[in-house]
């Protein structure tokens, strides 16, 4: 059984673009509407996402948290009225984190030795001097009105590879809640009123009540603990805790909680050359915050008493991230080229409607899709025509000597010059015949025919 013949021209056919002008207003309206919408989207994306900037990620520089003094130290019932230094434990990590005490259990440790005055609480040299702090002996206290305590956040930022660097006092900062709404906007004192008005209009819709101007002597952003909790969508510290180790009726004020504050840096929308940032606060359900703090008490020569302070509170952790950018023409060009690829989407919509949806799709298809002849057959016809033309020329050349002898009367004489005659062949070719006495060679153009003998 012979193998099927493969049509290689059909299998390896090439498709090229053919421009067809379709005079149909429906298609034109759809196409140009899509083009306008895509152009508006491209311009909006370039401006909003600042695609004309060459951006790089920030590196962690420094975050410093301070707690300004709020109230004097005193004791009243089960509440502790602490100042700033007492709210923050001495053993807390002050690098990009802060611990704010909300509840504290104070236990005065005892020793097994009868002579406790002879023991050094910091350096117990015998087993009898080992401090004992049973939990049952502790006294529970709450820090009063902790929501009104304030913290100051001072931070710096720089790019990974370029020289872009800035600090809190020179940038515009915004405190946002979990829904992305600005709660506070912080601006430098040296900002002009017109610049401040632009910032207020852009971030807080002109609400000057949410505007905070940094005083010249304050290097960072000051906010209350209540504002941080509100930004994390925590209405009260008395809501129930999700901690696995918490009691069924235990609140987050008792168990403690963790707040993750993300500082997102970037270029300002109204002025891309200026840097800015915003705070985003997240509450991590189920996470506790606890610190055990030993406090030694006694005479200066050697403390003989130990107090254990079991602190529960709010652990605030800061994370710096974002991108800093500066204008770069190649970045703009690259993003424009990538965005213009969306124009192809409008063409695809029109092509689909043209060939499959509209009632005149059959007529449109006839104009748009054109199939050429099989070029194998065309080449074969051209080759056959070339061969037949060569064969006819050879036949004419072979018949020319007899035709010349019979169709023309040649004159020659001795001592005279060769006679030159002109003849016309069937195809209209001028043929010059020269008769020489010596060789009597007949020449047709540049081709030499057979010799003719008289």
Automatic annotation (TrEMBL):
Entry keywords, A to Z = Ion channel, Ion transport, Ligand-gated ion channel, Membrane, Transmembrane, Transmembrane helix, Transport
InterPro entries reported for this sequence? P2X_receptor
Q: Name one GO biological process term.
A: calcium ion transmembrane transport
GO molecular-function annotation terms?
Answer: channel activity
Q: Where in the cell is it found?
A: Endomembrane system
Record region (Disordered): 382-417
Composition bias (Polar residues) maps to 391-401
Membrane-spanning intervals of the chain:
29-47, 329-358
- One Pfam family of this protein, by short name? P2X_receptor
Top-level taxonomic group: Eukaryota
Q: Name one GO cellular component term.
A: membrane
Gene3D superfamilies reported for this sequence:
atp-gated p2x4 ion channel
Family statement: Belongs to the P2X receptor family.
What is the designated name of this protein?
Uncharacterized protein
Q: Which organism is it from?
A: Catenaria anguillulae PL171
């Amino acid at each position: 059984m012979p193998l099927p013949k493969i049509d290689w021209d059909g299998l390896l056919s090439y498709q090229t673009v053919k421009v067809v002008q379709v005079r149909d207003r429906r298609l034109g309206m759809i196409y140009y509407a899509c083009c306008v919408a895509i152009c508006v989207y491209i311009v909006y994306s370039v401006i909003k996402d600042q695609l004309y900037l060459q951006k790089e990620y920030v590196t962690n520089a420094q975050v410093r948290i301070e707690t300004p003094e709020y109230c004097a130290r005193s004791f009243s019932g089960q509440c502790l009225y602490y100042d700033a230094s007492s709210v923050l434990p001495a053993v807390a990590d002050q690098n990009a984190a802060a611990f704010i005490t909300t509840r504290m259990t104070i236990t005065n440790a005892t020793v097994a030795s009868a002579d406790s005055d002879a023991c050094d609480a910091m350096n117990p040299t015998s087993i009898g001097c080992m401090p004992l702090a049973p939990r049952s002996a502790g006294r529970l206290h709450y820090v009063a009105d902790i929501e009104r305590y304030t913290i100051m956040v001072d931070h710096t930022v720089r790019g990974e590879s370029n020289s872009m660097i800035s600090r809190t006092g020179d940038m515009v900062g915004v405190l946002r809640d979990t829904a992305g709404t600005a709660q506070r906007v912080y601006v430098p004192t040296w900002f002009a009123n017109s610049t401040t008005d632009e910032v207020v209009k852009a971030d807080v819709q002109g609400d000057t009540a949410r505007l905070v101007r940094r005083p010249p002597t304050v290097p960072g952003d000051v906010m209350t603990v209540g504002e941080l909790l509100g930004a994390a969508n925590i209405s009260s510290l008395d809501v129930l805790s999700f901690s696995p180790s918490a009691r069924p009726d235990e609140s987050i004020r008792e168990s403690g909680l963790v707040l993750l504050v993300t500082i997102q840096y970037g270029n300002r929308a109204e002025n891309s050359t200026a840097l800015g940032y915003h705070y985003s606060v997240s509450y991590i359900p189920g996470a506790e915050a606890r610190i055990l703090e030993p406090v030694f008490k006694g005479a200066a020569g050697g403390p003989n008493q130990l107090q254990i302070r079991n602190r529960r509170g709010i652990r605030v952790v800061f994370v710096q991230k974002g991108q800093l950018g500066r204008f770069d023409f190649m970045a703009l060009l690259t993003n424009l080229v990538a965005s213009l690829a969306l124009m192809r989407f409008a063409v695809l919509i029109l092509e689909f409607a043209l060939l499959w949806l509209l009632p005149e799709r059959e007529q449109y298809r006839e104009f748009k899709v054109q199939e050429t002849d099989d070029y194998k057959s065309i080449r074969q016809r051209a080759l056959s025509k070339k061969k037949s033309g060569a064969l006819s020329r050879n036949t004419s050349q072979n018949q020319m000597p007899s035709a010349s002898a019979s169709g023309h009367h040649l004159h020659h004489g001795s001592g005279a010059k060769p006679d030159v005659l002109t003849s016309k062949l069937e195809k209209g070719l001028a043929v010059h015949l020269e008769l020489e006495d010596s060789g009597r060679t007949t020449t047709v153009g540049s081709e030499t025919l057979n010799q003719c003998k008289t």
